[in-house]
Amino acid sequence: xSRVEVEKKVLNENQILAEQLRERYRQQRILCVNLxxxxxxxxxxLLEKTLERMDKGARVALLTGDLxxxxxAKRLAKFGFPVKQIVTGGTCHLDAKMVERHxxxxxxxxxxxxxxxxxxxxxxxxxxxxxxxxxxxxxxxTEGEDKPLKYPSMFFKAELMVLTKIDLLPxxxxxxxxxxxNARRVHPGMEILExxxxxxxxxEAWMDWLRKRQQQKSEKxxxxxxx
Amino acid sequence: xSRVEVEKKVLNENQILAEQLRERYRQQRILCVNLxxxxxxxxxxLLEKTLERMDKGARVALLTGDLxxxxxAKRLAKFGFPVKQIVTGGTCHLDAKMVERHxxxxxxxxxxxxxxxxxxxxxxxxxxxxxxxxxxxxxxxTEGEDKPLKYPSMFFKAELMVLTKIDLLPxxxxxxxxxxxNARRVHPGMEILExxxxxxxxxEAWMDWLRKRQQQKSEKxxxxxxx
Lengths: 227, 227
What we know:
Two copies of one chain form a homodimer.
Chain A: H1 3-27, E1 31-36, H2 43-53, E2 60-66, H3 71-77, E3 83-87, H4 96-103, E4 113-117, E5 134-140, H5 147-150, H6 152-157, E6 160-164, H7 176-186, E7 191-194, H8 203-226
Parallel strand pairs in A: 1-4, 1-5, 2-3, 2-4, 5-6, 6-7
């Protein structure tokens, strides 16, 4: 079997498992989002600020992936919501099997929102469906405006781009307009939010996006069930 | 053949080719460095500043890798040294075959230094030997101090870490001391330089490092040849 064939087989197996996860989320009307970005774009900090703003009774859980360390799970666990670290041990992306295994002892009936924080990598996670409703790509203002053009697959597959670290705009040679233009060149009509987890700017719009997306999903499923 | 076996075979084939490249560099006493980092850590800007500071007659050439676009080659070509873009078309790393193919019409006798700028990815490029003398990993002050712990393979394999964007230290919650401590936890004794390509701070030490490393390599080869 050639390398390409093996790769295809692995991706097909992943796809089957991802569809099973998607169906489980659908039955429970859970919104699952898959956060992807370069290392250090601010995924974990954005999630800390997100959990801080959640109602105490919010039905949210998080899976956070890294090659090594439990650092992110520790950072996220302090808000009292269920969190698990997925340590890939060197693998450059999460796959559906890892997600399924880490969900095993959670009761999905208790959730409305499942957030998966992928390994920091703008390339490989774009090939692995985790059964999510939406990929969300973060791009920070310190990374350069050309990243959507250089990593088009990720920006094409993501439903939303969150431009992070906008508090640093005065100190970096970065045009938010050009970055957004580049994102929409590879993904016309892409939704884009701008946030600073440090100052809090844009966080309300981000919370609204999550809330509305979850409602939308829930209503869609209910309509299908009635249909 | 299982996926692991195929992966091993691909890596073995890469290793054979990498050793051939290494031997060619040795014969010509060329220093080859392989720059790796997250997307947007400042590899290309550091190389622009490096070329700007080179003597006009410097015997240097560059290969720069990206999934898509010729942007980086265009940025680097304006200094008058030979530059080629390697477009991987989606592949998350450079391999030895890509390097060999792009070197084909260059005369290695004309070079003292070959710089390879890898795809922006802190994971996959660590597995692919390009025949380089040294991997150099860049970490920018906007990425967080924990990256060496989360991506240990890359920091373990790199001879030198260049901490970039130190001009942003006043504006980001980043401890350079902790980042260096973390790098040396995964790679004891690792060499570390701190630079700002924007203000120029640290660039002389970086140029010195390259110069000395090239001399060292050249003298080592001459000693072996005399031996």
